[in-house]
Amino acid sequence: MARQDAAPFTVAVPDEVIADLQERLRRTRWTDTVAEGWQYGSDITYLKELRDYWADSFDWRKQEARLNQLDHFRTEIDGIGIHFLHQRSANPDATALVLLHGWPSSFLQMLPILPLLEDFHVVVPSLLGFGAVRPGRARSSCGVRAGPLGAHPSARCAGRSDGGRINGWSKAPRRTVVGFSCGPSSW
Fold this sequence. Notes:
By secondary structure, the chain is an alpha/beta fold. Helices cover about 20% and strands about 20% of the residues.
């Protein structure tokens, strides 16, 4: 398995990408509604307020600064770009804990519990197609087999949804615990 060393990664979306998204949101073409409220689909008033927030009020730079307070890394494994967070313990001999998010979700789902895990070296990879990771030719539906776990000789992983499918494909050192959640994020 070809693997490159991990390099620090900073979230930095170009201004023109944000401007393009805001312009496309402002050009939303609305369908006719059958009724107000949620009886026949999404409430159009709610959707318009949501669109207005994302187009005109959401402060992407503030969120970028918040994200960049974390230790992000990127690496390439088998030609596939991988993004992950790595929170190191003050104890160099700490057990590694790999947290996998479910689908549909992102690494953000794991942020609320990171302060509780200071006694572990915590790695939170993004599944392929999520955030800073592009879909690739991974062997699993969620792509973790090609992720940071795939670079090591033995692992045990349990879970449901995509986390359960990782079981048997993941490879991690003996002192590694692999866990995942597919619940909603509160971040």
